[in-house]
Design brief:
The complex is a heterodimer.
Chain A (H helix, E strand, L loop, with lengths): L18 H6 L4 H9 L2 H11 L11 H6 L9 E6 L8 H8 L1 H15 L3 E6 L4 H16 L15 E6 L9 H8 L23 E5 H5 L1 H7 L1 H5 L9 E8 L5 E6 L5 H6 L13 E5 L8 E2 L9 H6 L8 E6 L4 H15 L5 H18 L5 H14 L7 H21 L13
Parallel strand pairs in A: 1-2, 1-4, 2-3, 5-9
Antiparallel strand pairs in A: 5-6, 7-8, 7-9
Helix pairs in contact in A: 2-6, 2-10, 3-6, 5-7, 14-15, 14-17, 15-16, 15-17, 16-17
Chain B lengths: L3 H12 L8 H12 L4 H11 L3 H10 L11 E6 L2 H4 L3 H11 L14 E6 L11 E3 L3 E3 L4 H17 L1
Parallel strand pairs in B: 1-2
Antiparallel strand pairs in B: 1-3, 3-4
The chains are: A alpha/beta, B alpha+beta.
Chain lengths: 426, 162
């Protein structure tokens, strides 16, 4: 069955980035309904009842997150995480560039639900095109009375500010993002207090991902009961899967959570259409560089949060990178180790030093200078990072090494020698 | 010296936020657009407009990779060599481009200061690889060797004219 997208509606309606086209296709009906017929609490309750979980990676229930805001404390803020920087992730970019009004409507609805008058969209600096499209979408919404003072004649006011990042993966971590938005270095805060209580400018703050909020208009428009019929009992709704690497048709594909397997996504005619050159799958990353690698034996894993966790990895942002049978796994691991070394913010010593040493060890192994002892050191270094950092970047950084050692130890063994002097093939 | 227009722009940016300090990142972009990079003079000028110390502004500028705290060429190419691009041969394309630009080991900017070429972390263009970001302004995707050569030629012409 072909799924009709409700997030990537641009797949069926290519011109939906035009606000007229969006309106003609039901755009802003959810906002009209919410402002005329629903209290903010009712909007929150609907999102809670829908079972929507955060699509940025952590998978935390969205409505529940909103309800953590302390009562009666104002102002409060909505900070939208559009700092999509995980290698292999490009779903929020497509949503913002191709279906921007549904996303903006989701921001407005969510801001109304939490009674916030100023929302911020923190977009990574490397997405100048998407940032410009959002600025235009916000201006268009304002012109039509969907934003600004007394929205659609109600008593509700909202401003949205687009804030461009400047190249730092760490700013996708929610508290680092708040620091950056406050004009400081993007370094994570100690939690607790959680942002819901002490967030942006010390005020109660909700942080949600772009894709998460793009789910809100259809939930309000068609109701939580309808939404819950999509996906599984524990993982409701549709999900955008980013597929990259050695596939014939890389791209974003939307499907209900739990409705397809990795095999369907990689080989299906309506999805990535198989591995290039008819080769076999060797490794699969399900949440970019941050997920422990899976292998061909996991191809029949269903794509929902619980099933991928049961297979030993995480669904996270659902960034599926496919590696074919000819891929040099320690080489690919070094690529990911380099990324985390570069992106570690340096605040926590185990992450700052550990990511450096994991990269050095990987480089040594890949250049034929590695010893068996270097191989043993990799998990030792990784385990000294785990559980000793403020934010998940440290944990993510261990995934490439620990995940590949689990399944592909023989590839490491083939590259090391007793004296660190292995002849390398040129 | 920051132009009056730039100073005014920074003051406008400050008004967009509940706390003016939030405008330091957009203000640094404004200064970088004027100077081409962020010499100490630019950091000092932003600090004066922001009411922050130069140390505070300098620390923000040096934390984020899109601010150039060292001189760069007239155009900056941030070329993605992270895993999804690398699986499509981005390393070879990067090495070839370096050679084309006549860059020695550890050299990032061409001798005539026309082009700086840097490794970029994942740019989120993984479905259209290889991907690059030009001058922090635009992404170029599906960059074959031919398209890279054409882009470099175009940038060189633009540089020679200016």
């Amino acid at each position: 069955m072909i799924w009709e997208p409700i997030i990537l509606r641009n797949k069926n309606i290519p011109e939906i980035a035009d606000i007229d086209v969006y309106e003609r296709n039901g755009g802003f009906t959810a906002l009209k309904k919410a402002l005329k017929e629903m209290t903010p609490e009712q909007v929150t309750d609907a999102v809670k009842a829908s079972g929507l979980k955060g699509r940025g990676g952590a998978g935390f229930p969205t409505g529940l997150k909103w309800s953590f805001l302390p009562k009666g404390v104002f102002p409060r803020y909505l900070a939208v995480n559009a700092d999509e920087s995980e290698p292999g992730t490009f779903k929020d970019r497509e949503i913002m560039e191709k279906n921007p009004h549904q996303f903006i409507e989701g921001v407005i609805l969510s801001a109304y639900a939490i009674q916030c008058a100023h929302a911020f969209i923190y977009i990574r600096g490397e997405y100048p095109g998407a940032a410009n499209i959002l600025e235009q979408a916000i201006a268009a919404a304002k012109q039509r009375g969907y934003l600004g003072a007394q929205i659609l004649g109600s008593a509700y006011d909202l401003e949205i500010t687009v804030h461009r990042g400047a190249g730092a993966y760490i700013c996708g971590e929610e508290t680092a993002m708040l620091e950056s938005l406050e004009g400081k270095l993007g370094m994570p805060r100690v939690k607790p207090p959680f942002p819901a209580v002490v967030g942006l400018y010390g005020k109660p703050t909700v942080i949600n991902n772009v894709e998460t909020l793009t789910n809100v208009p259809p939930i309000i428009d068609k109701g939580a009961d309808w939404y819950k019929t999509i996906g599984t009992e524990k993982s409701s709704g549709p999900k955008v899967f980013c597929v990259s690497g050695h596939v014939n048709r890389p791209g974003n594909y939307e499907a209900p959570l739990g409705s397809i397997t990795l095999r369907d996504l990689i080989f299906g005619a309506e999805y990535a259409q198989g591995v290039r050159g008819e080769k076999n799958v060797k490794g699969i990353l399900t949440a970019g560089a941050s997920a422990p690698m899976l292998t061909a034996q996991h191809l029949d894993t269903k794509l929902d949060y619980e099933a991928v966790a049961a297979a030993g990895s995480i669904l996270g942002s659902a960034s599926i990178i496919v590696l074919d049978e000819d891929t040099d796994i320690p080489w690919a691991t070094q690529k990911m180790s380099r990324f985390f070394m570069h992106e570690s913010c340096g605040k926590c010593t185990p992450c700052r030093e550990g990511t450096y040493w994991m990269f050095v060890l990987m480089e040594r192994i890949n250049t034929g200078k590695g010893t068996a002892r270097d191989m043993e050191m990799l998990p030792i270094v990784a385990n000294q990072i785990l559980g000793r950092t403020l934010c998940p970047l440290g944990e993510f950084a261990t995934s490439p090494v620990l995940g590949t050692l689990k399944w592909f130890k023989h590839e490491y063994e083939a590259k090391v020698s007793a004296d660190g002097n292995r002849e390398t093939e040129k | 010296m920051l132009s009056e227009t730039a100073k005014q722009k920074i003051q406008e940016l400050k008004a967009r936020y509940p706390n003016a300090r939030s405008a330091v990142m957009p203000a640094l972009y404004v200064a970088q657009a004027e100077y081409g990079w962020l010499p100490q003079e630019a950091i000092d000028a932003v600090a004066a407009e922001m009411g922050m110390t130069s140390t505070e502004v300098g620390s923000v500028a040096s934390f984020y990779t899109m601010y150039h705290v060292k001189p760069v060429g007239a155009h900056v190419i941030d070329f993605c060599t992270d895993l999804p691009c690398a699986l499509a041969g981005a390393d070879a394309a990067f090495a070839r481009l370096r050679e084309r630009l006549g860059l020695d080991a550890h050299q990032e900017t061409t001798a005539d200061d026309a082009i700086t070429l840097r490794h970029a972390p994942c740019l989120g263009g993984c479905d259209k690889v290889p991907t690059l970001l030009l001058d922090n302004q635009a992404q170029y995707q599906n960059m074959t060797d031919e398209k890279l050569d054409a882009l470099v030629a175009q940038l060189r012409v633009a540089h020679d004219k200016s």
